[in-house]
Amino acid sequence: MKPGVRALGVAESYRESTSHFAGAVVRASRVVDGFVFDTCTVGGSDATATVCEMVERLGRADVRYLLIAGIAPAWFNVLDLRQLHDRTGLPTVSVTFEDSPGLGSAIREAFDDPETVQHRLSTYRAQPDRRPVTVDDGTVYVRSVGLADQEAADVVRAFTPEGGRPEPLRVARLAARGLVDAE
After folding, report:
1. Taken in order 120, 126, 131, 133, is the CA torsion positive or negative?
2. What is the side-by-side strand order in the sheet with 18-27?
3. Is the pTM of this model over 0.90?
4. Which CATH superfamily, name and number, covers 6-182?
């Protein structure tokens, strides 16, 4: 991948009822090239709209990929990767860092309202399956829309210099944590 190719990584950090999202534009050469910030509701259903608004507000035609840390930030505020791809026009990749049996039972346990559970499960089940991708000395789990499986794996590897976390997501997570700590 050429060193000037840019990805927007989005990660979150939360405290109480507000989740702070940070977006970091990072070049494949590891140069940080911009930031964007927003909030969404912990336990809400506004994470997808929040990320779309962040991309729109950023207004960067040079960003080639959208990388998201996880699929259900802000206490099961489930992201719709297809909607993110459709609204932003960017190939979208969700990266998780632990193997798991999925979120179905956790979503059912977290909410009492059957409609809320059904809505979240429906959105969650509509997402592409996770695939393991070997990076550095570890494994991450990737879902993607707008990229073939191998291309998504190549993008994740190209933006992961060391440590098993793609650089746009690592920087975004640090920025989100900084926002929460500053409160």
Report:
1. negative
2. 32-41, 18-27, 6-15, 63-69, 92-96, 138-145, 131-135
3. yes
4. archaeoglobus fulgidus dsm 4304 superfamily (3.30.2170.10)
Rounded Cα gap, residues 156 and 93, in angstroms: 8
- Which tens digit of pLDDT belongs to each residue from 116-172? 999 999 999 999 999 999 998 899 999 999 999 999 999 999 999 888 899 999 999
75 φψ region: left (φ > 0), alpha (ψ -120 to 50), beta (else):
left
Element (H, E) at 112: none
Residue 151: half-sphere exposure toward Cβ, Cα within 13 Å: 10
Per-domain residue ranges of the chain: 6-182
Percent residues over pLDDT 90 in the chain: 93
How far from 137 is each of 51, 68, 133, CA to CA, in Å? 30, 21, 11
